[in-house]
Amino acid sequence: MQGTVLMRLGDRSFAVAEIRHRLAHLGLLSRTNGDHDCVRAACDVFDETVDHAIRAFQQQRGLRTDGVVDAETFRALDEAKWRLGDRVLSYVPGHPLVGDDVAALQRRLCDMGFDCGRCDGIFGPLTEAALREFQRNVGLPADGTCGADTLRALQRLRRTVVGGRPYELRETLRLRHHPPTVAGKCVVLDPGHGGRDTGARTADLCEASLVDDIANRIEGRLLAVGAQPFRTRAAQHVLHPEDVPPSDGDRASFANAAEADVVVSLHIDGHHDPACNGFAVYYYGTARERSVVGERLAELVRAEVLERTDFLDCRTHPKTWELLRRTRMPAVRVECGYLTNPADAERLADPGVRDHIAEGIASALRRLYEDPGEPAAL
Ligand SMILES: [Zn+2]
Fold first, then answer.
1. Judging by beta carbons within 10 Å of its beta carbon (0-12, 13-18, 19+), is residue 142 exposed, middle or buried?
2. Distance from the alpha carbon of residue 36 to the mean position of ligand 1, in angstroms
3. Among the record's GO biological process terms, what is one (predicted)?
């Protein structure tokens, strides 16, 4: 289940006027509606046109398409306002610049064969190194800063033929160079929510406790085969109800600092429509690139869990959620059914079913290393 709702259909506030303005800037909302100027401060209503525009935006960006502005959608709207050339880009350790302009720069570098890792819109050290390399190649001072001269050089040299995707290739090769076993691998288990944030809930079940229990069951299995499981948050029973759980960005930083080999984030979905049900797995990806190992793990988790349970198959999907995007290693987010669906809630209340989910995920992790399959990007 997603985070706190900031704005949704029916709301009226100054912030809605700002959102309308951003959507109009992106061409998703017309500036006028008949002779009425929609983006003026008078238009501070989150109406159906805004709802549709938000959904279109979410779909474009690989976010949950629900028309609700939560922290994730708000962040994406904020990042989308930047066009390459709007500001000078450089690496700021600790506070990297994030935005569509950075992603555009990364894509151009990447298409010319300068490897900046993922084209994720985050100006990190790899982007800086690729930019310096590009500058050296075109005879500019290699200062790692994308200003006017570098922009001109980028525009001049923009190649129409798009080369390989160094990131996808490198990720696959890295997996193939691992010893073919999960033993010794650092696996970060990330049970979602926690503390005052219970996630999805019913009268007697809550997402945070259930995913905590599933994480425990996976942890035991991983220890038994010699892997090193780590958790992003303390167990639910030691979290005080007042505690603020870590953000998805914090969870990703934890996995990066731990130099994890792989991340499994555990959630249970919720929806206002009780008919929604099923098991889905998400990995990092956009229309242009994807984590090939993340996708493979997502497929393995889906296959292994559905073999052991009777959840509806809601398949695997690429997403750009913070946890998937900011982790520097393959990561999946597992949505183990819908707590708001009576049949799924009944399954999840059964410790035997939770054990099957855990067994399925642990088995998928074993297969990821023991049976890495053919490199998809070659
Ligand atoms: Zn959740």
1. middle
2. 40
3. peptidoglycan catabolic process
